[in-house]
Write a structure and sequence with these properties.
Order of helices and strands: HHHHHEHHEHHEHHEEEHEEHHHHH
Bound molecules: iron/sulfur cluster
Helix content: 40-55%
Largest sheet: 4 strands, antiparallel
Number of domains: 1
Strand content: 5-15%
Radius of gyration: 24 Å
Number of strands: 8
Shape: globular
Distance between the termini: 37 Å
Number of helices: 17
Length: 359
Protein backbone atom coordinates (compact mmCIF):
# COMPACT_ATOMS: atom_id res chain seq x y z
CA UNK A 1 0.00 0.00 0.00
CA UNK A 2 1.41 3.41 -0.91
CA UNK A 3 2.58 5.67 1.89
CA UNK A 4 -0.25 8.12 1.31
CA UNK A 5 -2.70 5.54 2.56
CA UNK A 6 -1.65 6.56 6.03
CA UNK A 7 -3.81 9.68 5.63
CA UNK A 8 -6.79 7.61 6.68
CA UNK A 9 -7.36 7.49 10.38
CA UNK A 10 -9.90 6.81 13.02
CA UNK A 11 -10.99 10.39 12.43
CA UNK A 12 -11.87 9.47 8.88
CA UNK A 13 -13.77 6.49 10.12
CA UNK A 14 -15.51 8.44 12.80
CA UNK A 15 -16.35 11.31 10.55
CA UNK A 16 -17.38 8.65 7.93
CA UNK A 17 -25.94 0.58 2.23
CA UNK A 18 -26.81 0.60 -0.96
CA UNK A 19 -30.42 1.68 -0.95
CA UNK A 20 -32.99 -0.76 -2.02
CA UNK A 21 -34.22 -0.09 -5.52
CA UNK A 22 -37.34 2.01 -5.67
CA UNK A 23 -40.45 -0.10 -6.08
CA UNK A 24 -41.14 1.44 -9.46
CA UNK A 25 -37.67 0.68 -10.80
CA UNK A 26 -37.44 -2.76 -9.30
CA UNK A 27 -38.32 -5.71 -11.54
CA UNK A 28 -41.67 -7.15 -10.65
CA UNK A 29 -41.08 -9.23 -7.53
CA UNK A 30 -41.30 -12.93 -7.98
CA UNK A 31 -43.28 -15.14 -5.72
CA UNK A 32 -40.06 -16.62 -4.43
CA UNK A 33 -38.72 -13.17 -3.46
CA UNK A 34 -41.78 -11.86 -1.68
CA UNK A 35 -43.55 -14.92 -0.41
CA UNK A 36 -46.62 -13.83 -2.39
CA UNK A 37 -47.42 -14.05 -6.05
CA UNK A 38 -46.55 -10.61 -7.51
CA UNK A 39 -50.08 -9.90 -8.68
CA UNK A 40 -51.57 -10.56 -5.30
CA UNK A 41 -49.27 -8.12 -3.48
CA UNK A 42 -50.89 -5.10 -5.10
CA UNK A 43 -54.29 -6.50 -4.41
CA UNK A 44 -53.42 -6.97 -0.76
CA UNK A 45 -52.06 -3.38 -0.55
CA UNK A 46 -55.25 -1.95 -2.03
CA UNK A 47 -57.44 -4.09 0.18
CA UNK A 48 -55.50 -2.87 3.22
CA UNK A 49 -55.97 0.77 2.20
CA UNK A 50 -59.68 0.29 1.69
CA UNK A 51 -59.93 -1.26 5.10
CA UNK A 52 -58.07 1.62 6.72
CA UNK A 53 -60.21 4.29 5.09
CA UNK A 54 -63.29 2.29 5.88
CA UNK A 55 -62.62 2.79 9.60
CA UNK A 56 -63.02 6.57 9.20
CA UNK A 57 -66.17 7.40 7.26
CA UNK A 58 -65.13 10.97 6.44
CA UNK A 59 -62.13 9.59 4.57
CA UNK A 60 -63.89 6.70 2.87
CA UNK A 61 -63.48 6.47 -0.86
CA UNK A 62 -64.84 4.19 -3.50
CA UNK A 63 -62.66 1.37 -4.74
CA UNK A 64 -62.33 3.14 -8.06
CA UNK A 65 -61.01 6.34 -6.43
CA UNK A 66 -58.52 4.41 -4.37
CA UNK A 67 -57.22 2.66 -7.46
CA UNK A 68 -56.89 6.06 -9.12
CA UNK A 69 -54.78 7.33 -6.23
CA UNK A 70 -52.45 4.35 -6.51
CA UNK A 71 -52.24 4.83 -10.27
CA UNK A 72 -51.45 8.55 -9.96
CA UNK A 73 -48.71 7.86 -7.43
CA UNK A 74 -47.17 5.27 -9.66
CA UNK A 75 -47.27 7.64 -12.61
CA UNK A 76 -45.30 10.28 -10.68
CA UNK A 77 -42.44 7.91 -10.04
CA UNK A 78 -39.62 7.48 -12.51
CA UNK A 79 -39.44 4.16 -14.25
CA UNK A 80 -36.51 2.80 -16.25
CA UNK A 81 -38.29 3.97 -19.42
CA UNK A 82 -38.86 7.59 -18.41
CA UNK A 83 -36.17 10.29 -18.70
CA UNK A 84 -34.43 11.53 -15.58
CA UNK A 85 -36.01 14.59 -14.00
CA UNK A 86 -33.80 17.67 -14.08
CA UNK A 87 -32.31 18.37 -10.65
CA UNK A 88 -30.19 21.40 -9.83
CA UNK A 89 -27.55 21.88 -7.16
CA UNK A 90 -30.03 24.09 -5.31
CA UNK A 91 -32.57 21.27 -5.37
CA UNK A 92 -30.03 18.90 -3.79
CA UNK A 93 -29.04 21.43 -1.16
CA UNK A 94 -32.67 22.13 -0.31
CA UNK A 95 -33.31 18.40 0.07
CA UNK A 96 -30.22 17.99 2.25
CA UNK A 97 -31.38 20.88 4.41
CA UNK A 98 -34.81 19.31 4.72
CA UNK A 99 -33.22 16.04 5.78
CA UNK A 100 -31.11 17.72 8.46
CA UNK A 101 -27.69 18.44 6.95
CA UNK A 102 -26.00 21.69 7.98
CA UNK A 103 -23.18 21.97 5.46
CA UNK A 104 -22.95 20.51 1.95
CA UNK A 105 -20.77 20.67 -1.14
CA UNK A 106 -20.20 19.01 -4.52
CA UNK A 107 -16.98 17.34 -5.67
CA UNK A 108 -16.58 16.06 -9.24
CA UNK A 109 -14.80 12.70 -9.06
CA UNK A 110 -11.90 14.01 -11.18
CA UNK A 111 -10.65 15.94 -8.15
CA UNK A 112 -9.38 12.76 -6.47
CA UNK A 113 -6.94 12.09 -9.31
CA UNK A 114 -6.05 15.77 -9.63
CA UNK A 115 -4.92 15.93 -6.00
CA UNK A 116 -3.30 12.50 -5.95
CA UNK A 117 -3.65 12.34 -2.14
CA UNK A 118 -5.99 9.37 -2.05
CA UNK A 119 -4.79 6.03 -3.48
CA UNK A 120 -6.64 4.97 -6.66
CA UNK A 121 -8.45 2.07 -5.00
CA UNK A 122 -10.02 4.49 -2.50
CA UNK A 123 -11.38 6.94 -5.07
CA UNK A 124 -15.12 7.16 -5.87
CA UNK A 125 -14.93 5.72 -9.38
CA UNK A 126 -12.99 2.70 -8.13
CA UNK A 127 -15.59 2.05 -5.47
CA UNK A 128 -18.58 2.68 -7.76
CA UNK A 129 -17.81 3.10 -11.49
CA UNK A 130 -20.96 5.13 -12.23
CA UNK A 131 -19.93 7.89 -9.83
CA UNK A 132 -19.59 11.36 -11.41
CA UNK A 133 -20.12 13.57 -8.38
CA UNK A 134 -19.69 13.09 -4.67
CA UNK A 135 -22.13 15.07 -2.57
CA UNK A 136 -20.45 15.71 0.79
CA UNK A 137 -22.39 16.93 3.78
CA UNK A 138 -22.11 17.25 7.52
CA UNK A 139 -23.74 17.99 10.84
CA UNK A 140 -22.13 19.88 13.73
CA UNK A 141 -21.02 18.64 17.13
CA UNK A 142 -22.06 21.16 19.75
CA UNK A 143 -19.06 22.66 21.54
CA UNK A 144 -20.36 22.53 25.14
CA UNK A 145 -21.22 18.86 24.70
CA UNK A 146 -17.87 17.89 23.22
CA UNK A 147 -16.19 19.81 26.06
CA UNK A 148 -17.54 17.17 28.43
CA UNK A 149 -15.64 14.36 26.72
CA UNK A 150 -15.18 11.66 27.86
CA UNK A 151 -18.80 11.43 29.01
CA UNK A 152 -22.00 9.58 28.26
CA UNK A 153 -23.40 12.94 27.13
CA UNK A 154 -20.83 13.17 24.37
CA UNK A 155 -21.25 9.50 23.47
CA UNK A 156 -25.01 9.96 23.03
CA UNK A 157 -24.43 13.16 21.04
CA UNK A 158 -22.04 11.28 18.79
CA UNK A 159 -24.47 8.39 18.33
CA UNK A 160 -27.25 10.80 17.41
CA UNK A 161 -25.09 12.46 14.77
CA UNK A 162 -24.26 9.04 13.36
CA UNK A 163 -27.90 8.07 13.01
CA UNK A 164 -28.71 11.38 11.36
CA UNK A 165 -25.80 11.14 8.93
CA UNK A 166 -26.74 7.64 7.83
CA UNK A 167 -30.38 8.54 7.44
CA UNK A 168 -29.61 11.63 5.38
CA UNK A 169 -27.29 9.66 3.13
CA UNK A 170 -29.78 6.86 2.60
CA UNK A 171 -32.74 9.17 1.97
CA UNK A 172 -30.83 11.47 -0.39
CA UNK A 173 -29.68 8.52 -2.49
CA UNK A 174 -33.25 7.26 -2.78
CA UNK A 175 -34.48 10.77 -3.63
CA UNK A 176 -31.94 10.96 -6.47
CA UNK A 177 -32.83 7.49 -7.69
CA UNK A 178 -36.52 8.39 -7.78
CA UNK A 179 -35.65 11.29 -10.06
CA UNK A 180 -33.78 8.94 -12.37
CA UNK A 181 -30.24 9.76 -11.21
CA UNK A 182 -28.46 6.66 -9.90
CA UNK A 183 -26.93 7.21 -6.49
CA UNK A 184 -25.59 5.22 -3.59
CA UNK A 185 -25.25 6.09 0.05
CA UNK A 186 -22.31 5.22 2.26
CA UNK A 187 -22.18 4.65 5.99
CA UNK A 188 -20.53 7.48 7.91
CA UNK A 189 -18.27 4.86 9.52
CA UNK A 190 -17.17 1.69 7.85
CA UNK A 191 -15.81 -0.63 10.50
CA UNK A 192 -17.32 -3.40 12.59
CA UNK A 193 -15.35 -2.84 15.78
CA UNK A 194 -12.40 -0.95 17.21
CA UNK A 195 -10.53 -4.24 17.46
CA UNK A 196 -10.78 -4.65 13.69
CA UNK A 197 -9.13 -1.24 13.34
CA UNK A 198 -6.11 -2.48 15.27
CA UNK A 199 -5.32 -4.84 12.40
CA UNK A 200 -6.78 -2.82 9.51
CA UNK A 201 -7.02 0.85 10.46
CA UNK A 202 -8.25 2.11 7.09
CA UNK A 203 -11.64 3.29 5.95
CA UNK A 204 -12.81 2.08 2.55
CA UNK A 205 -13.57 5.73 1.72
CA UNK A 206 -12.52 9.00 3.35
CA UNK A 207 -15.38 11.45 3.91
CA UNK A 208 -12.75 13.89 5.16
CA UNK A 209 -11.11 14.18 1.76
CA UNK A 210 -14.48 14.14 -0.01
CA UNK A 211 -15.50 17.17 2.04
CA UNK A 212 -12.19 18.87 1.31
CA UNK A 213 -12.64 18.33 -2.45
CA UNK A 214 -16.22 19.61 -2.14
CA UNK A 215 -14.87 22.92 -0.82
CA UNK A 216 -16.14 22.50 2.74
CA UNK A 217 -12.82 22.87 4.51
CA UNK A 218 -9.19 21.81 4.83
CA UNK A 219 -7.45 18.99 6.67
CA UNK A 220 -5.70 20.11 9.84
CA UNK A 221 -2.71 18.83 11.80
CA UNK A 222 -5.01 16.50 13.74
CA UNK A 223 -6.23 15.05 10.42
CA UNK A 224 -9.73 16.25 11.14
CA UNK A 225 -11.52 18.28 8.50
CA UNK A 226 -11.66 21.90 9.66
CA UNK A 227 -14.57 24.03 8.48
CA UNK A 228 -14.98 27.75 9.06
CA UNK A 229 -18.24 27.39 10.97
CA UNK A 230 -17.34 24.56 13.35
CA UNK A 231 -13.62 23.89 13.08
CA UNK A 232 -13.22 20.10 13.45
CA UNK A 233 -16.50 19.81 15.39
CA UNK A 234 -18.41 18.47 12.43
CA UNK A 235 -19.31 14.95 11.35
CA UNK A 236 -19.39 13.96 7.70
CA UNK A 237 -20.91 11.63 5.18
CA UNK A 238 -21.12 11.36 1.38
CA UNK A 239 -23.42 10.24 -1.41
CA UNK A 240 -22.12 9.11 -4.79
CA UNK A 241 -24.25 9.95 -7.80
CA UNK A 242 -24.03 9.37 -11.55
CA UNK A 243 -25.41 12.89 -12.05
CA UNK A 244 -22.77 15.43 -13.08
CA UNK A 245 -23.00 18.56 -10.93
CA UNK A 246 -20.64 21.53 -11.02
CA UNK A 247 -18.12 21.34 -8.20
CA UNK A 248 -17.85 23.90 -5.44
CA UNK A 249 -14.64 25.93 -5.39
CA UNK A 250 -12.05 24.40 -3.09
CA UNK A 251 -10.53 26.49 -0.32
CA UNK A 252 -7.19 27.93 -1.38
CA UNK A 253 -5.71 28.63 2.08
CA UNK A 254 -5.30 26.42 5.14
CA UNK A 255 -7.68 26.83 8.07
CA UNK A 256 -5.21 25.08 10.40
CA UNK A 257 -2.93 27.62 12.08
CA UNK A 258 -0.45 24.90 13.17
CA UNK A 259 -0.85 26.06 16.74
CA UNK A 260 -0.16 22.47 17.90
CA UNK A 261 -2.78 22.64 20.67
CA UNK A 262 -4.24 19.35 19.43
CA UNK A 263 -0.80 17.77 19.68
CA UNK A 264 -0.34 19.03 23.26
CA UNK A 265 -3.82 18.05 24.42
CA UNK A 266 -3.96 14.55 22.95
CA UNK A 267 -4.02 12.17 25.95
CA UNK A 268 -2.02 9.50 24.14
CA UNK A 269 0.53 11.62 22.31
CA UNK A 270 -0.83 10.24 19.05
CA UNK A 271 -0.56 13.49 17.05
CA UNK A 272 2.84 14.65 15.86
CA UNK A 273 3.43 17.83 13.86
CA UNK A 274 5.38 17.47 10.63
CA UNK A 275 7.87 19.98 9.33
CA UNK A 276 6.94 19.37 5.69
CA UNK A 277 3.21 20.05 5.79
CA UNK A 278 0.12 20.93 7.77
CA UNK A 279 -1.24 17.40 8.20
CA UNK A 280 0.47 15.70 11.13
CA UNK A 281 1.52 12.11 11.75
CA UNK A 282 -0.95 10.05 13.70
CA UNK A 283 -0.26 7.01 15.83
CA UNK A 284 -3.47 5.22 14.93
CA UNK A 285 -2.76 2.28 17.16
CA UNK A 286 -2.42 4.49 20.26
CA UNK A 287 -5.55 6.43 19.32
CA UNK A 288 -7.58 3.26 18.74
CA UNK A 289 -6.42 1.61 21.98
CA UNK A 290 -7.48 4.72 23.88
CA UNK A 291 -10.89 4.47 22.24
CA UNK A 292 -11.21 0.85 23.31
CA UNK A 293 -10.62 1.91 26.92
CA UNK A 294 -13.21 4.68 26.62
CA UNK A 295 -15.72 2.42 24.91
CA UNK A 296 -15.41 -0.06 27.76
CA UNK A 297 -16.14 2.81 30.15
CA UNK A 298 -19.24 3.65 28.05
CA UNK A 299 -17.98 7.11 27.14
CA UNK A 300 -16.37 7.13 23.79
CA UNK A 301 -15.13 8.50 21.41
CA UNK A 302 -12.27 10.67 22.65
CA UNK A 303 -12.61 13.77 20.47
CA UNK A 304 -10.21 15.90 22.50
CA UNK A 305 -8.38 17.03 19.36
CA UNK A 306 -11.73 18.30 18.04
CA UNK A 307 -12.67 19.90 21.35
CA UNK A 308 -9.50 21.95 21.73
CA UNK A 309 -9.07 23.30 18.19
CA UNK A 310 -9.33 27.10 18.07
CA UNK A 311 -10.78 27.12 14.54
CA UNK A 312 -14.53 27.60 14.17
CA UNK A 313 -17.15 30.34 14.46
CA UNK A 314 -19.01 28.17 16.95
CA UNK A 315 -16.53 29.37 19.60
CA UNK A 316 -17.94 32.87 19.29
CA UNK A 317 -21.50 31.58 19.43
CA UNK A 318 -20.81 29.83 22.72
CA UNK A 319 -18.63 32.60 24.15
CA UNK A 320 -15.59 30.36 24.28
CA UNK A 321 -13.02 32.04 22.01
CA UNK A 322 -9.86 30.88 23.82
CA UNK A 323 -8.41 27.40 24.24
CA UNK A 324 -6.05 28.02 27.18
CA UNK A 325 -8.42 26.39 29.63
CA UNK A 326 -8.15 23.08 27.79
CA UNK A 327 -4.38 23.04 28.21
CA UNK A 328 -4.77 23.70 31.93
CA UNK A 329 -7.64 21.29 32.54
CA UNK A 330 -5.83 18.02 33.19
CA UNK A 331 -3.20 19.42 35.57
CA UNK A 332 -5.79 21.52 37.38
CA UNK A 333 -8.09 18.53 37.99
CA UNK A 334 -5.22 16.32 39.08
CA UNK A 335 -4.42 18.95 41.67
CA UNK A 336 -8.02 19.66 42.66
CA UNK A 337 -10.75 17.37 41.26
CA UNK A 338 -13.32 19.93 42.39
CA UNK A 339 -11.73 22.90 40.67
CA UNK A 340 -14.76 25.16 40.13
CA UNK A 341 -13.62 26.19 36.66
CA UNK A 342 -14.32 22.64 35.42
CA UNK A 343 -17.30 21.76 37.64
CA UNK A 344 -19.68 21.24 34.73
CA UNK A 345 -17.39 18.89 32.79
CA UNK A 346 -16.46 16.86 35.87
CA UNK A 347 -20.10 16.50 36.86
CA UNK A 348 -20.95 15.03 33.46
CA UNK A 349 -17.94 12.70 33.53
CA UNK A 350 -18.87 11.39 36.96
CA UNK A 351 -22.35 10.27 35.94
CA UNK A 352 -23.64 7.65 33.56
CA UNK A 353 -20.32 6.03 32.66
CA UNK A 354 -17.79 3.65 34.15
CA UNK A 355 -14.16 4.42 34.95
CA UNK A 356 -12.72 6.96 37.34
CA UNK A 357 -11.06 9.49 35.05
CA UNK A 358 -12.36 13.03 35.26
CA UNK A 359 -9.99 14.54 32.70
S1 LIG B 1 -5.58 22.61 17.18
FE1 LIG B 1 -4.23 24.01 16.00
S2 LIG B 1 -2.76 22.64 14.97
FE2 LIG B 1 -4.46 21.36 15.66
S3 LIG B 1 -5.85 21.24 13.89
FE3 LIG B 1 -6.56 22.94 15.17
S4 LIG B 1 -5.54 24.77 14.33
FE4 LIG B 1 -4.45 22.97 13.53
S1 LIG C 1 -7.01 13.51 20.93
FE1 LIG C 1 -5.56 11.88 20.39
S2 LIG C 1 -6.45 9.98 21.20
FE2 LIG C 1 -8.08 11.53 21.15
S3 LIG C 1 -9.12 11.23 19.14
FE3 LIG C 1 -7.56 12.82 18.85
S4 LIG C 1 -5.73 11.69 18.15
FE4 LIG C 1 -7.11 10.15 19.06
Amino acid sequence: MPERRSHFSLHDLMTLIIPDAMPSTRPTPTAAATGFPAASRGAILRAGMRGAFGMFPSFSRTDTTMDAVVTRRRARRTTPDTPARSITRDDVIAELRRLGATIAGFAPVERWAAHGEVPPAYRPEAIWPLARTVIAFGVPMLLPVIESTPSINYQEHYDTSNRLLDEISYRLAIWLNEAGHPAISLPRDGYGSLEILLTNPFASFSHTYAAKYAGLGTVGMSRNLLVAQYGPRVRLNSVFTAAAFDGDPELTGELCSRCRVCERACPTGAIRARSDGVVGDLDKDACTRHHITLRDERRWPCGICAKVCAVGADRKLYGRPGVKRYLEERAALEKNPDDPRFRSEVHLRRHGSGGTRIA
